[in-house]
Fold this sequence. Notes:
Methane Monooxygenase Hydroxylase, Chain G, domain 1
Amino acid sequence: MTTINIEKLExxxxxxxxGYEKIEKLYADKKELxxxxxxxxxxxxxxxxxxxxxNITSFAEQRKKISETMNMPTFSMTDxxxxxxxxxxxxxxKFEEKKAKVNELAKRIFELERTNLELLKHGMHxxxxxxxxxxxxxxxxxxxYNQKGENITKNQLEMSSIIEEA
Length: 166
């Protein structure tokens, strides 16, 4: 295991952490949009989140390739730490800190995502209730006419045959 590969791994993991920090910020921004009811801007935020996840995936692939060159069985953080610990205790400690940071970011992102999902559900519920009120408000108007377009409200006097003949 070379110091160069350890540094490459460290840089890649730092890039992954940076990506997760960006995603956390984007989820926080999304939460604010949901709270403020700015649904039109959600698509842009979702695209940015997707792009960041794609970047993180490419960094994970790079981490996998370097792990293979270092003869590690997998490219998980735990395996990296265990393998590096044998040769460089200080580097292993850095990776443990990075692993803790990734885990903490993952928890915060998960919580933000869960909150955003609840906000979306609430928004849909409010929208459905609003539509129900609008539809109920329109129903009396539509009930005033029959299929032929004739007024059928009971407030009007009905003409009897006697009045019509006169």
